[in-house]
């Protein structure tokens, strides 16, 4: 048993004799474990949080213009050619015909990002143009009511908080000074309602947006029947795949005119992107483990140099080379276990703080997908330490006993 092994006791004694040096080496492992584990935990929580939010709108199909593979998506994109980067009236009619086969809701959307001004404070916001009769099926109003006039709008909770908007507030949209054709002449709208917080969504991201009637939108911001996106809210989630096939046949049977996706494909894409970012950041964190490995290697080589005479005495009384190697590997193992153990505790606390600070919630912190990074980080730290001690241990075991005894 390792704790009853005399060579383990000798390793513990050497760590105690060189406590400060050993502690500094172990701190390198602590930093490396904390960096890798905390980043892994944050990435897992981010993926779980996004997946949960998008899954709530899992019955939504999003149709956007196809720009040859480079555009489209939630906020719209390109069209089937360079001039018609929108979904037109004919395409909308085809979508409605396909969706009419079930209890499905078709939601045509105009959307853009435009300059806004509230009480002298300037900024930018996403703006949706939509048939207001569809709004109650899409969002919930926390305060106020639906617009009763064409100049009334609904605003997202985050946008309202940022600009201190209340029911009755006025927002100027567009550019005060129109310098070219791309500038929108400024017009004023009045807030009639503030929406409940929705979070990330595959259909409408309303928290930082303004929702206005489609007639008001086309009067100032866009052309009629040139939709940036059309959503279908499926009455039965099991019909989504069949709906997508029918839509693809109706709209893309000659050439790709639109991109069709649901929240499931978005979840896969976002998860893959977050995973790539997490791996990249973990790779950067792994550099600290590499530095720690060099530090452990240096400490072990110093330990071998300082204990040459001790090694000579042990070898002269019959100690085998394998036992000498074991003694030094025990020492690197002790440094690894101590460093990885402290790192695990620190990364648990640091991961919790980092997750809350970056994501704003720790609802998924105590899940297997999140906490599995703690033991993984510990194992990685211990393995790095032991590998760093392999060569010093081998060198110690290869010392000639007579030459070692002559050493001063």
UniProtKB/TrEMBL annotation:
The membrane topology term of the UniProt record is: Multi-pass membrane protein
The protein's name is ABC3 transporter permease protein domain-containing protein
Q: Where in the cell is it found?
A: Cell membrane
PANTHER family assigned: ABC TRANSPORTER PERMEASE YTRF, MEMBRANE COMPONENT OF TRANSPORTER-RELATED
Q: Name one Pfam family in it.
A: MacB_PCD
Q: Name one GO cellular component term.
A: plasma membrane
Per UniProt, the keywords (alphabetical) are: Cell membrane, Membrane, Transmembrane, Transmembrane helix
The residue ranges of the ABC3 transporter permease C-terminal domain are 283-397
Residue ranges of domain MacB-like periplasmic core in the record? 22-248
Question: Into which family does the record put it?
Answer: Belongs to the ABC-4 integral membrane protein family.
- Entry's InterPro entries? ABC3_permease_C, MacB_PCD, Macrolide_Exporter_MacB
Q: Does the keyword Chloroplast apply?
A: no
The source's superkingdom equals: Archaea
**Does the record carry Glycosyltransferase as a key word?**
no
- Per UniProt, what is one GO molecular function of this protein? transmembrane transporter activity
């Amino acid at each position: 048993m390792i704790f009853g092994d005399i060579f383990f006791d000798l390793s513990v004694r050497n760590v105690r004799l060189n406590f400060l040096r050993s502690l500094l080496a172990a701190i390198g492992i602590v930093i490396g474990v904390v960096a890798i584990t905390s980043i892994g935990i944050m990435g897992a929580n981010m993926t779980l949080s996004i997946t949960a939010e998008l899954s709530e709108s899992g019955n939504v199909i999003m149709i956007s213009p196809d720009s040859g593979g480079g555009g489209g998506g939630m906020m719209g994109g390109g069209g089937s050619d360079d001039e018609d980067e929108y979904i037109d009236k004919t395409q909308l009619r085809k979508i409605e015909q396909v969706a009419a086969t079930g209890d499905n809701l078709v939601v045509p959307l105009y959307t853009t990002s435009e300059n806004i001004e509230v009480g002298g404070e300037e900024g930018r916001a996403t703006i949706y143009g939509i048939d207001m009769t569809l709004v109650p099926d899409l969002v919930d109003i926390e305060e106020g009511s639906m617009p009763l006039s064409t100049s009334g709008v609904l605003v997202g909770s985050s946008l309202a908080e940022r600009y201190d908007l209340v029911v009755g507030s006025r927002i100027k949209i567009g550019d005060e000074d129109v310098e070219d054709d791309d500038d929108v002449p400024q017009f004023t709208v009045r807030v009639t309602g503030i929406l409940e917080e929705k979070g990330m969504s595959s259909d409408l991201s309303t928290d930082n947006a303004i929702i206005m009637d489609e007639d008001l939108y086309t009067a100032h911001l866009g052309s009629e029947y040139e939709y940036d996106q059309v959503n279908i809210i499926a009455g039965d989630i099991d019909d989504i795949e069949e709906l997508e096939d029918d839509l693809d046949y109706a709209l893309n049977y000659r050439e790709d005119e639109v991109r069709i996706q649901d929240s499931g494909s978005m979840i896969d894409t976002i998860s893959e992107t977050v995973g790539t970012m997490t791996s990249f950041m973990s790779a950067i964190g792994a550099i600290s483990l590499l530095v720690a490995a060099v530090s452990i290697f240096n400490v072990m080589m110093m330990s071998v140099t300082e204990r040459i005479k001790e090694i000579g005495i042990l070898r002269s009384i019959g100690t085998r080379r394998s036992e000498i190697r074991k003694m030094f590997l025990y020492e690197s193992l002790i440094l690894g276990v101590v460093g990885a153990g402290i790192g695990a505790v620190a990364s648990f606390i640091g991961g919790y703080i980092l997750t809350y600070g970056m994501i704003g919630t720790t609802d998924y912190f105590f899940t297997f997908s999140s906490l599995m990074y703690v033991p993984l980080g510990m194992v990685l730290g211990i393995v790095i330490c032991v590998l760093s001690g392999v060569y010093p241990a081998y060198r110690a075991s290869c010392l000639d006993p007579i030459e070692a005894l002559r050493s001063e």
